[in-house]
Amino acid sequence: MTLNEKNFGVKAEDTIYIPAGASHGFSTPDEAVVLLSVQSPPIYPESSLPDIHFGNPNSLGEMN
Questions:
Q1: How many domains is the chain built from?
Q2: Are 25 and 37 in contact (CB under 8 A)?
Q3: This protein's superkingdom (predicted)?
């Protein structure tokens, strides 16, 4: 995983704290993964859709 431009290894059953506003991302090139994301208080109102993107970054780090 990447947190504020630093890479960290993560394994099964790890818990990760991501501070509000921190830049973050996950990459799982070799295997499927299941993530549980919990925010308190909620980061999105119930009436809005989350701004979450899945895909592969291009050479500039932009999501395809």
A1: 1
A2: no
A3: Bacteria
